[in-house]
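[Automated response] Your request has been received and processed.

Submitted sequence:
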Amino acid sequence: MAVYISLRTRLALWVIFLLLAQVVLVLFVIQRQEVVAIEQEQREKGLVLANSIIQENTPLLVRFDYDALKENLDARIDDMLVYIIFYNRFNMPAAGNDFIVGFDDIYQFTNLGEDLTDREAVVRRHQLRDAEHNPLVDVLEIEIPIFLRDVSDRWGSVKLGLSLDEMHAEVRRTSMLLLGIGVLGLLIGIIGATWLARRITTPLQKLVEGTKQLSRGDFSLQIDIDSQDEVGNLARSFNEMSSQLQLLQKRMEEANKRLIQVEKLASIGHISAGIAHEIRNPLTAVKLNIQKISAKENLDEGDLVNLEISQEGIAQIEKFIKELLNYARVSELNLDWFAMDQIIDGSIKMIADSLELKNVTIEKHYAPDMPQVRVDADKVRQVILNMLRNSCEVVDVGGKIKVRIEKADTPSGPRLRTLISDNGRGVPQKDWENVFEPFYTTKASGIGLGLAIARKILEQHDGTIRVRAQEGRGSCFEILLPCESET
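Generated structure:
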């Protein structure tokens, strides 16, 4: 079974591994360079010390004063200088400090060849051991020739043994310092790698969560990633895809609503045809008979009232059948370019008597230079008349109706917005969508087809109608129709 390792963990581990390898390599190279530098410094120090000893003791060597020479050598021995050996011109040991005399393999033999010049030296490293071959001290051994002024032959040589303990201590201090720097750098690298892994994988995790949300059908998610890199481009593409899917979902919902509406229309059409066939003919006969009876003389007042009530009922049924057939019928539009204010003004004139009867005032607010709309003027006038009648019915005596026309820019393009509002009792928010459904009404005498017919007509014009919120009491209906882009 494969072990799951997150991308963040793998990325952090790889970065840490590469960083660790780089730190080890760099520390190794630096440490080797430091060791070489320390050894070179030790060698230069030994050469300077050897030349200094030669200058001090050459006169004693020339006079063959080996006792004085040995005393000088013993006096120069310290923690760093382990031994000093002078050799004569015959490569025989002339003098040396007491410590080295017991090491014949070092004391008795010089390291110089016959052809060595005065500027050359022999340098080697070795380890002094006791009789039991136990290590005593690591030594850097330097031997240089001695040449007298105006004498071409070598007069002798001097051999120094420098303790490497100080050099080893310096190397250890340098190694510890480099190790500390490496550990600190590695810790900083680990923190940086963790931060980098989090910075890279967190947006990816957001994208993963976003895809899960999309798979559940929620297309409203927008990922907040503004980095200017491939991840940012991926997030922006994801957001664009989400917006497109959301728009597609909205269009599908609208298409489903229209499909349901078409199915309703088909059902209502079948019902309307049956109603028109089964009810109209008998109803016409009833209506004619009532009219004949009403024309007779010698009818008392009560009979006349009952006949009038029957005629009103028949008229209500005929109105219902007519509106039902109008709603179910799919009629062709006679489209042309019209000014919306002219259509509204014509509708207001047709309802002027009803407005005057209730002393209702109409306020008109038309924006200047409004574009025209390509509509069936009779159909749109029917919608406006319906809206104005509804407003006139719901306002009190002395009420007010406002009509506003203005241009609106929408995602679907330029639209002409018509707002019809009143200060009547208003439409409850819970009914804002239901009022456009067939047979849904809040009026006692209504049959619930007026607003349904209005929506159907406007949808035929690629328009919309909806209830809008407004301050104070009353209701406000918004009508949007496509218009020209310029006046």
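Summary generated for your ticket: The radius of gyration is 56 Å. The chain has a mean pLDDT of 79.
If you did not submit this request, please reply to this message.
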